[in-house]
């Protein structure tokens, strides 16, 4: 069934687990993540950034995710990941997503607030959950630089009051993509932010942060963890293995099959780690 993300995060926060948000670039990876959710009786968030939609139309991918999620017994939210503009968010609403993230974390505070607030107003009118971001989660390749833009607790509280977002992405030490160096989550900061805003917090850049670190973050108010790179890297490994071992015999369909398997296995691992297994 399709649900707004807010419902999932509320339950997660109440029962001290997190819901995985898995970014999917293609039709078969949508299926893979949903299959893992069904297998684990887990709520799940299917995340689609517009930037993934080079070879498949955004509306096609969202439509496919909706169609597959609707008949399932497990609750599924579909979110626009890292929406870059007001227009992107409206496009997501029209496509039928049940949640949108507006990422104005690179903008000056006033601009981030102005756009996020407008997105909240429109999205809430049609029952759609909104995630905002304050502080800035950078790229793992520039990990050190990213540490300069950690979320400030007072600013986070002000941002929530100014915008009315339902969930807040925070910068507490993780980064997108592969890490250069050892990731470090600032749990004291995370704890202070949670005590200040008392709402579901979102950890972006979950991949290769390490199972123990991620699990611990859930004790400090993280209710949603975003995962992409770990699934993609596992797919690449399996594709390479298939090509190395069976170059003459391997068919294109086999590579799609490897990708599907990798996304299913890795997302399933994280559902178990985050404690969402059995929560559907
Ligand atoms: Zn992200």
Q: How would you characterize this protein structure?
A:
It is a single chain. With 280 residues, this protein is of the alpha/beta class. The chain has one domain (5-274): Alpha-Beta Barrel (TIM Barrel). The protein is 49% helix and 15% strand. It contains 11 helices and 8 strands. It has helices at 5-14, 27-39, 58-69, 86-95, 109-125, 143-146, 153-163, 187-197, 211-218, 229-246, 252-274, and strands at 19-23, 44-48, 76-83, 99-102, 129-134, 167-170, 201-203, 222-227. The chain has an 8-stranded parallel β-barrel, surrounded by 9 helices. Strand 1, helix 2 (27-39) and strand 2 form a beta-alpha-beta unit. Helix 2 (27-39) packs parallel to helix 3, helix 4 packs parallel to helix 5 (109-125) and helix 10 (229-246) packs antiparallel against helix 11 (252-274). It starts with a helix and ends in a 6-residue tail after the last helix. Residues 82, 137, 176, 204, 226 line the site of zinc ion.
CATH architecture: Alpha-Beta Barrel
Please tally the helical runs, counting DSSP H or I stretches of 4 or more residues: 11
For the record, the CATH class is Alpha Beta
Specify the structural class: alpha/beta
Identify every distinct bound molecule in the structure, by name, code or SMILES: zinc ion
In terms of quaternary structure, the protein is single chain
> What general form does the structure show?
globular
Sequence of strands across the biggest β-sheet: 1-2-3-4-5-6-7-8
Number of domains: 1
Q: Kindly estimate the percentage of residues that lie in beta strands according to DSSP.
A: 5-15%
How many β strands by DSSP? 8
CATH superfamily heading: Aldolase class I
CATH names the topology as TIM Barrel
Give the SSE string: HEHEHEHEHEHHEHEHEHH
Ends distance? 10 Å
The major sheet is characterized as: 8 strands, parallel, barrel
> Are there runs of 5+ residues with pLDDT below 50, and where?
none
């Amino acid at each position: 069934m399709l649900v707004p993300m807010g419902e999932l995060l509320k339950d997660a926060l109440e029962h001290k687990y997190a819901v995985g948000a898995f970014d999917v670039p293609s039709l078969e990876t949508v299926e893979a993540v949903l299959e893992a959710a069904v297998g684990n009786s887990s709520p799940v968030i299917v995340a689609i950034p517009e930037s993934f939609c080079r070879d498949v139309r955004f509306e096609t991918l969202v439509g496919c995710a909706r169609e597959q999620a609707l008949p399932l017994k497990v609750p599924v939210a579909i979110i626009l990941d890292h929406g870059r503009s007001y227009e992107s968010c409206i496009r997501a609403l029209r496509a039928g997503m049940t949640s949108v993230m507006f990422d104005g974390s690179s903008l000056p505070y006033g601009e981030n607030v102005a756009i996020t607030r407008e997105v909240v107003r429109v999205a809430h009118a049609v029952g759609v959950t909104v995630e905002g971001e304050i502080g800035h989660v950078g790229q793992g390749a520039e990990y050190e630089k990213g540490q300069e833009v950690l979320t400030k607790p007072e600013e986070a509280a002000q941002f929530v009051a100014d915008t009315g977002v339902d969930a807040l992405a925070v910068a507490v030490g993780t980064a997108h993509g592969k890490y250069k160096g050892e990731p470090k989550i600032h749990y004291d900061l995370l704890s202070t932010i949670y005590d200040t805003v008392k709402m579901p917090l979102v950890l972006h850049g979950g991949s290769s942060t390490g199972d123990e670190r991620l699990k611990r973050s859930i004790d400090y108010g993280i209710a949603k963890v975003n995962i992409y790179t770990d699934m993609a890297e596992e797919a690449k490994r399996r594709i390479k293995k298939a090509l190395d071992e069976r170059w003459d015999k391997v068919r294109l369909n086999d590579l799609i099959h490897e990708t599907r398997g990798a996304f299913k296995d890795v997302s399933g691992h994280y559902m178990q780690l985050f404690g969402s297994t059995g929560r559907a």
